[in-house]
Amino acid sequence: MQNVTLEVEGMTCGHCVNSVEGALKNIGAKGQVELATKTVKVQFDENKLTLETIKETIEEQGYDVV
Amino acid sequence: MQNVTLEVEGMTCGHCVNSVEGALKNIGAKGQVELATKTVKVQFDENKLTLETIKETIEEQGYDVV
């Protein structure tokens, strides 16, 4: 398992939290959004997912990974 | 038809727009959220709905009508 913390712009409310965490869950990763720090902590299996896929998944929800 | 513009706190993103406009649509009103001005323009049939119901519907979505 790999843990990364990503800085993500545009997450403002509980719906955004659900969108990002839900999308990560759908691809088999575990995400934890913290609105105050504009971060997403992601835990994923590096044998199944790449960091690139994680980033794309978040961006597909309409947010910018910086 | 009656038109009112309500000031609403807490709407921050497109999901919030969808929540508020969707909830109003569900009760038969027409809402238009403007995030920049924190307002919701609502058009409704005063023979079928009251302003109190409109406000409650918005607040049930988690926002404060001020």
Automatic annotation (TrEMBL), chains A, B:
Pfam families: HMA. Residues 2-66 form the HMA domain. InterPro entries: Cu-bd, HMA_dom, HMA_dom_sf. It comes from the Bacteria. This is Cation transporter.
